[in-house]
Amino acid sequence: MATLKDTQNEPDHRRIAIDRVGVKALRYPMQVRDLHGTTHQSTVGTFALTVHLPHHFKGTHMSRFIEVLNAHGPVFQVNSMDVVLKHLLERLDSEQAQIDIEFPFFLEKAAPVTGMKGMLDYQVKFEAGAKRSGEFDFILTVIVPVTTLCPCSKAISKYGAHNQRGQVTCAVRFNETVWIEDLIRLVEDCASSELYSVLKRPDEKAVTERAYENPVFVEDLVRAVAAKCQEHPLITWFRVEAENFESIHNHNAYALVEGRK
Amino acid sequence: MATLKDTQNEPDHRRIAIDRVGVKALRYPMQVRDLHGTTHQSTVGTFALTVHLPHHFKGTHMSRFIEVLNAHGPVFQVNSMDVVLKHLLERLDSEQAQIDIEFPFFLEKAAPVTGMKGMLDYQVKFEAGAKRSGEFDFILTVIVPVTTLCPCSKAISKYGAHNQRGQVTCAVRFNETVWIEDLIRLVEDCASSELYSVLKRPDEKAVTERAYENPVFVEDLVRAVAAKCQEHPLITWFRVEAENFESIHNHNAYALVEGRK
Amino acid sequence: MATLKDTQNEPDHRRIAIDRVGVKALRYPMQVRDLHGTTHQSTVGTFALTVHLPHHFKGTHMSRFIEVLNAHGPVFQVNSMDVVLKHLLERLDSEQAQIDIEFPFFLEKAAPVTGMKGMLDYQVKFEAGAKRSGEFDFILTVIVPVTTLCPCSKAISKYGAHNQRGQVTCAVRFNETVWIEDLIRLVEDCASSELYSVLKRPDEKAVTERAYENPVFVEDLVRAVAAKCQEHPLITWFRVEAENFESIHNHNAYALVEGRK
Amino acid sequence: MATLKDTQNEPDHRRIAIDRVGVKALRYPMQVRDLHGTTHQSTVGTFALTVHLPHHFKGTHMSRFIEVLNAHGPVFQVNSMDVVLKHLLERLDSEQAQIDIEFPFFLEKAAPVTGMKGMLDYQVKFEAGAKRSGEFDFILTVIVPVTTLCPCSKAISKYGAHNQRGQVTCAVRFNETVWIEDLIRLVEDCASSELYSVLKRPDEKAVTERAYENPVFVEDLVRAVAAKCQEHPLITWFRVEAENFESIHNHNAYALVEGRK
To answer: Is residue A92 part of a domain?
Structure first.
């Protein structure tokens, strides 16, 4: 037995490079900029940190991923993402590094009539990749819960229309920062109604009627979001999914559109 | 190093009996009786098998739980539950044994107008306990997806009413078999509408209108199910929970009633 | 149609009181005290807020739960829990209120040899209940990931021993504050080894050898934690569960002990 | 209000085709062929059925997806997949249809020394796509739980080595049927040890020692599986992922290789 042999540094002869290797399902406190970057909110991220491994190395050094993360403090700052990626490229001696983070994000929203304020939660993902050559790729994904009211049900029924909570997953690449809250707003504007945390009776009345006046299928929803992404001056690529937790079925309705400009 | 020492059989001196010890999260094919026991359906169960361990034993024998299960064939038959429990009591030499199983269960339902048939899925749980003294305990739980339409939203809005998929979890003890399909039916009768797998337009119209005509809060839903359980001649104990995946919020409405007769 | 009729305030004639009714699965930013209360950490909680509803009321007022939470600011402070409970009792006009919160909690730990620091995450639950009569109940639960190494495998094998990640769920009631970090420490001391975020090679060697020197069954683990809870001067009740994600099986080993003093 | 207006059939003017639209998260009983097609096992699938929707249609007809599924009986037969896909193309009048199914699959395995038999569960996915032009695409994915023992930990420690449950996700395309059980076998042969349902003491000794004699990093594991896929005469594309639920950390080690021949 060698004393603290560096097994990972041994050569490998299978001639198979590894596309991604690293750590996954790592939870870490983080701060993300909100209100167009003027302030911060604290949240908890689930991280995957990976690099490309050339075919001639037996293994990567898993502990270094955590060291790089820790080197930037006990709370991860989203605006240090590029620096952390560069640090990963160097410390792991790799051509390519990737950081994926998923975290809850909160927006304060005012109820539509009473103006009563409450916090609504969204799930957000960052997928950031960097190459030693300087190339950089970033995908921002927001998962936005919405109300959808069925146009068919409304059209054929004497009264009422089935509606439900739905979920829009909108992923974008951009050539200049699109803020999380702006992308959420873009999505919410396409639903039968956006959701709220607190609704008093006058608000509930307004939201119920608004949803009834704006019926959408999942097809309408993904098309409306896709159309807005296409028109958006900063967005260069998008993938939009909508999933309705149908109130009349125990399965979901689903639609997906992907677009490049 | 002893040759295949039986570590589990050693004495333990901490004088702490273990309430439950065994295996968990074990998936196994199973068959469950349906249509009042006249036929069977195949499904997949997630099992927990445990026994009581007296304070003087260091450990139980985990492999014996699986052996007992396997001894009854490659597909678990629900009507062999008592035999398997007895077998566990003997094989593990324990005073008390418990089998918990959770599995998807399917009912064929006809759409309300066209009569078109489809399969609807439910989640079902069995919790069966036996003591060497002969005592036996059994809890049947059904998790039933339903439509709930909000009475408040209907009362205050010009048109429409928010509705959503909800979920009723109904657990019962009984003194003579209550069939899964009968307990599901009992729950579905209390919702704004039951769910279906296939709905053609005339069916969707019927379901939309029925829900609008039968608004229920989660409070109404648990009370209605509880009232039916109280009246039921065979049910001796019940716990009813309702959870609405609110279409206007990103959180859920929830209610719980427990009752004994 | 009544103008904004208060449906919830109507009488109910089924004579069934509701044990718990309110909101569930509500995510909200929060701060929790750490380091024995000298400082705070930011995290995200998943909340359930409920009250008891007497039989003569048709429904509770769901929006008031959120209002009460919001009234205490956009970030929930754990040390305001009693105040929020009292506020719920009053605002919902109930005899009994309950707040359940589940959240990730982080501890900075130093690797055993190199002393390199990293953040380890735990799942923590608070279950706090208050009655108008003044009674108060609080359960603190920590879910602690650990290493467990099998005593049987070690005893019978020429070399090596199967080990795995396990999870101890320890719930306690106490008569004077037991800090989260102290309860975590109590649990970690009973495992084959505690876990770490960063381990360099000398640390990995130390942890591997320590686990090999301290084999435990799930039975040993729950007994050791239970024994420490029994001896602890502040703890008045405990329930300890251990679950091993067995490295040699695709199911888990499980044990449970509950104790009162 | 039109009587049962066919809203979905209306024209749409946004000129955005929808890549995929249909139903998701639909559970349905199914039978899958095993033992090289000589027999069947019953299980429960979670289905997604989608089609491509041209830009000029407002919506698809969701109920038809379920009708197509139901038309083939109350239990889905995997060998009717092509027929169901063709049926979807026709019934939904689309250029492209897709069926994705995920289900638990069981293999009977004999313990390595005693030969004692038990059922081990795996998660399997089918992704089948068909175009009206006749093109057909099929991806088979198996998710195989395994033991991995750390080569570094073994090399540097006086005794023992940390090991854990890991999971290999292996997706392949092929030009002639590769059976699920053969792909599982291919993966299991690359791990420190395969898993078993029942292990008596002589078996546990054998498995512990075998794992100690065959240490693998996630990097080794994905490379070994990739190498076997490359050599396999029938496999034309593969993507291999390995994830270790590290016994010494609360995060996972992860590696991914994708290859085409």
So the answer is: yes
Residues of D in contact with B202 (CB under 8 A): 4
Hey, are the CB atoms on C44 and A104 less than 8 Å from each other?
Answer: yes
Q: Say if the Cβ atoms of B249 and A212 lie within 8 Å.
A: no
Are A146 and A69 in the same domain?
no
Residue D34, domain extent: 7-108+119-134
Task: Return d(Cα D172, Cα D189) in angstroms, integer.
Answer: 17
Residue A113 in any domain: the answer is no
List, as ranges, residues 22-41 from C with C-beta within 8 Å of B. 22-27
CA nearest to B53, candidates B6, B14, B110: B14
- pLDDT digit string (tens) for D57-69? 888 999 999 999 9
B217 interfacial to chain A (CB closer than 8 Å): no
Q: Which residue in B208, B212, B252 has the most chain A C-beta atoms within 10 A of its own C-beta, making it the best mutation to test that interface?
A: B208
Could you tell me if C25 and B252 are in contact, meaning their C-beta atoms sit under 8 angstroms apart? yes
Give the predicted TM-score (pTM) of the model.
0.96
User: B199: which chain D residues are within 8 Å (Cβ-Cβ)?
Assistant: 63
Contact C27 A104 (CB under 8 A): yes
Residue type (1 letter), C225: V
- 10 Å CB burial of residue D94 (0-12, 13-18, 19+) is buried
Interval C147-205: pLDDT, tens: 999 999 999 999 999 999 999 999 999 999 999 999 999 999 999 999 999 999 999 99
Are D48 and D152 in a shared domain? no
- The C-alpha atoms of residue B123 and residue B44 are separated, in whole angstroms, by 11
Judge if D151 and D245 occupy the same domain: yes
Half-sphere exposure of A53 (CA within 13 A, CB side): 31
ipTM for the complex shown: 0.94
